């Protein structure tokens, strides 16, 4: 693939879904207290609006809310683990990769560079969260200490069961040819 062809294919990704189906990813479970509690203790973020029902009820939220950066967690697919289906798990497999052409062009390495959240409102107990993700931008080819490559940014919009936007996440990676 020539450089102009590669650039054209990369730019064609913008505003396209990152996954194979183009459908929203729907959380397997509604926002719930046990998962919030696990997160709060794992992250040592013991904000009482996350874990204390009495405190949360008297707060501006009127009840327990989920930490806003948990948005991604609610819709994250189960990992594809060997034998998980046999043990009753729900294996998820990525069926297509819209950026596979970068591998073929030699940009075989990936590193996450940053993630940014915009929060519209905290998720509440019972919210069923969906995520829709599209490629937002693709840079021109850049030289970095890791190698030469492209920064790809995707935008995930998180909504509840009523279509209300809860937040957005921009996630950027560098797809690159390793420096020699």
From TrEMBL:
Q: Name one Pfam family in it.
A: FAS1_DH_region
Q: Which SUPFAM superfamilies match?
A: Thioesterase/thiol ester dehydrase-isomerase
The superkingdom listed in its UniProt entry is Bacteria
Per UniProt, residues of the FAS1-like dehydratase domain are 29-166
Query: Which InterPro entries does the entry mention?
Result: FAS1-like_DH_region, HotDog_dom_sf
Q: What is this protein called?
A: MaoC family dehydratase N-terminal domain-containing protein
Q: Which organism is it from?
A: Mycobacterium vicinigordonae
Q: What is the lineage of its organism?
A: Bacteria, Bacillati, Actinomycetota, Actinomycetes, Mycobacteriales
């Amino acid at each position: 693939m020539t450089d102009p062809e590669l650039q054209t294919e990369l730019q064609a990704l913008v505003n396209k879904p990152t996954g194979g189906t183009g459908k929203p990813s729907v959380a397997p479970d509604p926002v719930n207290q046990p998962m919030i509690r696990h997160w709060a203790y794992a992250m040592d973020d013991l904000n009482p609006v996350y874990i204390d029902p009495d405190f949360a009820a008297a707060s501006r939220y009127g009840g327990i809310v989920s930490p806003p950066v948990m948005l991604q967690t609610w819709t994250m697919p189960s990992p594809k683990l060997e034998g998980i289906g046999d043990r009753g798990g729900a294996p998820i497999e990525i069926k297509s990769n819209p950026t596979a052409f970068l591998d073929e062009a030699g940009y075989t390495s990936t590193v996450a560079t940053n993630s940014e959240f915009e929060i519209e409102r905290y998720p509440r107990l019972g919210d069923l969260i969906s995520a829709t993700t599209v490629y937002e931008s693709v840079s021109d080819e850049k030289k970095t200490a890791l190698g030469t490559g492209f920064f790809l940014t995707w935008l995930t919009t998180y909504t509840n069961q009523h279509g209300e936007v809860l937040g957005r996440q921009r996630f950027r990676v560098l797809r690159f040819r390793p420096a020699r």
